[in-house]
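Dear support,

Our group has been running a series of protein-ligand predictions, and this particular one with guanosine-5',3'-tetraphosphate is the one our PI (initials K.S.) wants archived with full inputs and outputs. We had some confusion internally about which version of the output was final, so please treat the block below as the authoritative record. The input we submitted was:
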Amino acid sequence: MDDLNDYTTRRTFAIISHPDAGKTTLTEKLLLFGGAIHLAGDVKAKGNRRRAHSDWMKIEQARGISVTTSVMTFEYEDVTFNLLDTPGHEDFSDDTYRTLTAVDSAVMVIDAAKGIEAQTRKLFEVCRLRDVPITTFVNKMDRETRDPFELMDEITEMLALDTCPMTWPVGQGRDFKGCYDLVNDQMILFEGTSKRGGIPDILPCQGVDDPKLAEVIGVELHAKLKEDIEMVRGIWPQFDLDSYRQGHLSPIYFGSALKDFGVKDLLDGLKEFAPVPRSQTAESREVKPDEGKVSGFVFKVQANMDPKHRDRVAFMRICSGTFKRGMKLLNTASNKTMTVASPIFFFSQGRELAESCVAGDIIGIPNHGTLRVGDTLSEGEDIMFTGIPDFAPEILRRVRLGDPMKAKHLQRALESLAEEGVTQVFRPMLGADWIVGVVGTLQLDVLKDRLLHEYNLEVDFENTQYITARWVSAQGENKHDDIRKFIEANRASLGEDRDKTPVYLARNAWDLDRAQQDYKEIKFSEVRERGR
Ligand code: G4P
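Confirmed final output from the archive:
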């Protein structure tokens, strides 16, 4: 890291997109421009090595989707980028949601032939909840595309988001000549840029009327460009940085990730405009990135990254202060202090010990189950960052164990997997079988596969009569009594989550509604914030 102690050099972001829009390709090209990797294909090669280590990724491979969340750090000029990968599949929405709590901005990749697709929209809505600024990359301009004006309108209308083109495409598909750079008044030529990681050829010009342009892109396309740019400048006023930073306006770049085109413009744009690490909300106060004391929160836990060791890595976003390796930090949820001796940075070339890091950085902390999603670590202050939720699962299944002698083993395995935050486990108050709760069915496949390969446990999932779960709590003066009475009367419909918090397992909507009517003093929550 160049400037270890200056958080303003950090840009922590995620890429959101519908599967197949080009997120993997763009990631790879960003890393290439960032000089983090030297050979195209490294992202995939690394993925394959990791797959060899982690069996559950076979599912990912077989289905051709990306289900894990990883962090990659790379440098470009004087800026350090932390890129958080979000799983593209809708089944993993709560994991994705938590990842998006750890970024300061996002890049939305859109396929130029398809426009806004279902998953793009969902992920965008998550970003909007937190006013995360979005930069848009309209990808695959080297193919037949939709009309750029139409695409711009679609983004504005479907997402209710103001837009502002930063570049404008000249031609498309086979006739794609490049983009007109609206900020610097120059033509970025597509020809000659197929060199991987190459710097595009620029044709400096005196505005869009410059006759040099016609020589290079042809008279016809030049006439169209002049017309387009006049319209563009009429429709979209100049880029408004404040509006972007507040999450109301998205700058739009056109390009082709596959052909390395437009990636540098995007990266330059992120470097210049993307926000530096923002303040984070804790229960008691806002925590500013330039505060002296270290604080951070865990947004993801990944277990068994190396099956030879039962290791577990907690991904923590640093929110303030300058963290130094070996520091003692307080886990405010458990009130225990831990020495962070081997924190890891995840560069695309591999892991490295993190000696020092600042707000916006993501470090991996190896641990044996002491750190959980939602935990806050601080240099002593009793703070708790908010907004890192669990969502009520919509699929609840009973776990049937192949070998009943392994019940204890199953308990440990389920608890451990639940701590990663990808699945939830409930123990019914009556009966001995475990119930797992997930948001989408794909998680069940992953769970089954991981139980078999990482824990040597053969399990099946059986349907239950439950349709959803609600966390149960009470607030009034007699809250303990209220809860106790509710539990006594409803034991058959109750379970406990891994924190021993009571959970109401609803058989149908009517059932839930009746419980809510009958027990007005009890709160039934669909979302639970992790932590205390
Ligand atoms: P994802 O992570 O968003 O799911 O998308 P990914 O990058 O894997 O890209 C999906 C497909 O689109 C890939 O083709 C990829 O090569 C292609 N692609 C990505 N960017 C561009 C682009 O700018 N132009 C064109 N023409 N194609 C692009 P594939 O055939 O499915 O995979 P592969 O065999 O090429 O790896």
